[in-house]
């Protein structure tokens, strides 16, 4: 990436368009891509951008890997998109929050990216 600091800041702030653009050229482990895409789908559901979230869920490679490898986790996202109202307790189990998940994802990705 052009700047690791800028990339990680985009993750922490939820600037997903920038993050997806940057990750499109990177080779990242499936588990890290899955966590990233899962978070984006959750945040799109929270913003009620359900159609975009559904498209990501059903048409991106990382989430198709999730569908095959962990169908229950995938179905949890599908159900989240079907709800009329967003429930943060359902979306962020075990006391986590949007911010703590973003920080964890940024930390995970930090070891995978370098400046060019």
Number of strands: 0
How large is the share of residues in beta strands? under 5%
Q: Return residue spans where pLDDT drops below 50 for at least 5 consecutive residues.
A: none
The gyration radius over C-alpha positions equals: 14 Å
Termini, distance in Å?
A: 6 Å
Percent helix: over 70%
Word description of this protein:
There is one protein chain. This protein has 116 residues and is mostly helical. The protein has helices at 4-13, 16-23, 30-46, 50-59, 61-69, 71-82, 88-91, 98-110. Helix 1 (4-13) crosses helix 2, helix 1 (4-13) runs antiparallel to helix 8 and helix 4 packs antiparallel against helix 6.
A few lines on this structure:
The chain is built from 8 helices and no strands. The protein has helices at about 5-15, 15-25, 30-45, 50-60, 60-70, 70-80, 90, 100-110.
Task: Looking at this protein, list some descriptive labels.
mainly alpha; 116 residues
């Amino acid at each position: 990436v052009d700047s690791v600091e800028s990339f990680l800041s985009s993750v922490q702030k939820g600037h997903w368009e920038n993050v997806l653009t940057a990750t499109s050229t990177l080779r990242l482990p499936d588990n890290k891509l899955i966590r990233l895409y899962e978070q984006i789908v959750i945040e799109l559901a929270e913003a009620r951008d359900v159609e975009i979230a559904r498209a990501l869920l059903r048409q991106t490679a990382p989430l198709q890997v999730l569908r095959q490898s962990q169908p229950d986790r995938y179905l949890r996202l599908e159900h989240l998109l079907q709800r009329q109202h967003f429930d943060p307790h359902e979306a962020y189990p075990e006391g986590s929050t949007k911010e703590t998940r973003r920080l964890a994802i940024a930390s995970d990705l930090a070891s995978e990216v370098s400046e060019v």
